[in-house]
Amino acid sequence: TQENLLLAAAYVSDAQYNRNVPFETSPRAIRLYYFYNHWTMQVAIYFFICVDLSLALFEEPALFPLPFLATSLAEVLCLTAFFGRLVHFAKVTPQMVFWKDTKNICIMVTIVLTLIDLIIYGSLEAVNVHSVRWSRVLRPVFLINFPESRQIRRTFRSIRNTLPDILYVFLLFMFSVLIFSLMALKLFGDRGLKTVEGLPYFTNILDIVFELYVLVTTANSPDVMMPAYNFNWWYCLYFITYTIINTYIFMSVFLAVVYNNYRKHLKNEIRKLAYLKRHKMIEAFNILKVKVGTEFVVMEAQWRRLAKVVAPHISGPHLELLLRISDEGQKGHVDKVNFLRLADLLNIQVVTINIRRHPLEDWMPRVYRSSASLLVQRMVQHRIFVWVYDVIILINAIFIALDERNPFISYAEWLFLSLYIIEILLKLYTYEPRAYFDRRQFWNWFDTLIIIAALVATVANTTIQSARKYNSQQILDIVLILRILRLLRIIVSIQRFRVIVTTLINIGPTILTFGGLVLVDVLSLLLLAGGFALVTHQAAKLYFIGFHIVVVILIVNIFIAFILEAFFVAY
Amino acid sequence: TQENLLLAAAYVSDAQYNRNVPFETSPRAIRLYYFYNHWTMQVAIYFFICVDLSLALFEEPALFPLPFLATSLAEVLCLTAFFGRLVHFAKVTPQMVFWKDTKNICIMVTIVLTLIDLIIYGSLEAVNVHSVRWSRVLRPVFLINFPESRQIRRTFRSIRNTLPDILYVFLLFMFSVLIFSLMALKLFGDRGLKTVEGLPYFTNILDIVFELYVLVTTANSPDVMMPAYNFNWWYCLYFITYTIINTYIFMSVFLAVVYNNYRKHLKNEIRKLAYLKRHKMIEAFNILKVKVGTEFVVMEAQWRRLAKVVAPHISGPHLELLLRISDEGQKGHVDKVNFLRLADLLNIQVVTINIRRHPLEDWMPRVYRSSASLLVQRMVQHRIFVWVYDVIILINAIFIALDERNPFISYAEWLFLSLYIIEILLKLYTYEPRAYFDRRQFWNWFDTLIIIAALVATVANTTIQSARKYNSQQILDIVLILRILRLLRIIVSIQRFRVIVTTLINIGPTILTFGGLVLVDVLSLLLLAGGFALVTHQAAKLYFIGFHIVVVILIVNIFIAFILEAFFVAY
Ligand code: NA
Questions:
Q1: Per-residue pLDDT at A262 exceeds 80
Q2: Domain containing B50: what range?
Q3: Which of A144, A397, A496, B69 is a Cys-bridge partner for B168, taking CB atoms 3.0 to 4.6 Å apart?
Q4: How much distance in Å is there from the Cα of A214 to the middle of ligand 1?
């Protein structure tokens, strides 16, 4: 039946996208589940999460101050969207599962707490009493707890699992810093040395611990050593030993422990995902199976209908290809082993090369196929064409470095821009435009976007310079940066550069989410600790150490672990 | 025959220690080869290499200046030793192989060049003309090219294989730095900003490239950004972007490429070593095999004699154990498969626990087994004993941190020292001394050495303070450091700390050779470039960049790769 087909398709789709949401199997719940997974709903929820997180930019202490009414309205809107999403989820998933999931409870509690905070803050504001919007630190809860953020939660789990191992290395590291601090106190404390600012040098053990901790980050690197060097050059041995042990060895050990755990964890996660995927595909098979001879199979017609529901935009030839792979013996049905592979088959990107004729060839075949036109096309396809434009970019770079108040150089700008536009036009003349701008042709898009940015920049620059009245510094700066960014085109020409950048771009989304999360956390921390740190100098130091532990030891190392792993796979 | 046995033993020994020296099979050559591989010869050659390398400390510009005659005599002595070792090697290895090996040619050429340089320099010195001892940069050639330095050459090969991949990443990195430099020139160059020293800020493209390159190391981290921040806070976006891309992403990519290559290379090396080991064991088997029934085997008596030649200090029970493993069926002979395992079997450290009686129990059994004595022994074995001494160490740390001119604290020193000596005496009373000081009981040695160092330090300190006349600052500093180092004993008590430190110590020798090599190279570079860098400011900058490329990008990353790999294996 159609209901069974939809249910099976939901299982296959979950297997394909590694979703792990238990849903009710009533027809109404399945339909709601399809709607729940629709990309518009996902985009909407991410949009509201972004709005909610970016509110920090508009609230005091704000980069762009907005009145409380505006930000609180936006926040209520976001909370409504989150609540709606949660209600939608509650109708999809079994009641028992919903209330047992701490993620849902977290979201609900956060919504209620935020509303209470909003009401209190608003009321106090109304009678001109200033208070603190403490619920702002809770906002990342939404980012982390919605089912869409599987990857982020996986990373957090990974961090949590790493903590015990990290803790012991950290304790040993702090022990080492303490030993070196004691040495510094004994070696330098009684010598009456002075820092550059004329303060006593290394006389207080707590100050020494802090300075040596900061030395690990090399933030105070030459300054903190100078009084000792000036007293006796031999003390460089102390600082060299310190740097080797605490900067190089300990920081490497931190990385080793984090990376080690990350890989172990990743292996477990992949195993778990494979198990869940297989489990879901078996569920789907059991719904659709019929008995043919002695074995259970899925009939070809049923399989086709299922594939159409799971991947509505799949092309006819692609579907036939998948069927031919799945029904090896052309027996008119797909057996269990081949059926279980469907989710993976759908994930394989098949590059369908459509050798289409150039539109110009249809419109004016005689002109397009004339010998002059063919010569132009061969020229554009030749590697010398690429080299000529590489040289042009280099000359452009030199011109940018030169003084632009020289009118000759200012005119040259227009020459370069024309050359770039001619290049893109020639390419569109030679290559079929739809193939050139295919979704997978990342580097063509990159190239074209940079040229368009250059065009916009140069036009904007000229407009500003001729208008003279509206000479905004920020717009001028952006124009300058866009003009320089066009030099990035050189990356496109060098194969090895493209490999490196492609690898980095593939892990880009993960890094961006991760970086965004860190930024939000850091901003929250800064806001919370900022006032506190101003009160006492000692608190500011503790704050620096805490910040360093979280950011450098954990996050940067996990970031490096990401990149290490990505390069193992890609390079 | 005895000759055949010696030849087979040489093959087994080479397989055991992963040596790969082709040697002649004549009886005389084999005997010379045994002598060549003797540990005294190895120690001697390392000693002369160390002397040769450390000459840099005594030659101008010197830390401890010595007359030219002394250093040149020492150098000639070293060269003689190297030449002798080479002649010895030439008598062991076939003529053809010897002259084809570039390592030998390298050593010979370096000896000749060094002698020429010594003669020229000496003659010029005699007529009071100062010249440059250019052959000093050739000294690491000896360290690298003797067959003993397989591990170092392996690392160098690994570095050389990494270079092409590193090069492309480096070019892309420099391209990125250049793009950012152009941006900085355009954004800040025309604003008339000044640095803290009042110099023009970011006006020259070459200066900018250098400053931004240094920024990657964070050496000039806050200073270089301040003028831009002071002008407009928004420019922090520029520096944040720069740091994320060039410090975090590119430095991680460098590490990823180096580590990736290192692992690939390591896998190949291990495969090659396994192949060579098997090949050598087959050679040995072919020499000793006799036919029993249908298969070739080595007779038990022959096998015993072979094992005795390869491992002369092996104990009787250990040898019987190995034989029982190798001759599974107790058939009186060892078959080929089991014979090939011999080299690996000899490498396995068998912990033979000799439950010996305490010497005191033999000398005065009644006293040692009295109830009071047994109580003491149980007390020492109890974990509370460890905890009590941990607390004592902590109190000691606090006392060290306090002002030692207070006489009470100065007396406390003696108290702590007595407590530590009592501890070690109690342990020696409880545990069998030979078992306690076994070669493999690293932590007991560590503990005892630290206490002895503490004793020496405190006694020396008191002697100096009472003598008053000879109050050398350097000796006082060393005493202070030794007194603080005794706090390291706390590591022994915490199991997890010991695991981390053991892992680090296991890779210690490799890191030390590696670090020594780097130090020598760096010193040679410094000496060569030092004078050159003083001439022009631009040359100094290039020098800094070259130094950073070699040290940070290559060496530090390979160092981190070592540690990452060691922790994968050990943790
Ligand atoms: Na710094």
A1: no
A2: 38-145
A3: A496
A4: 10
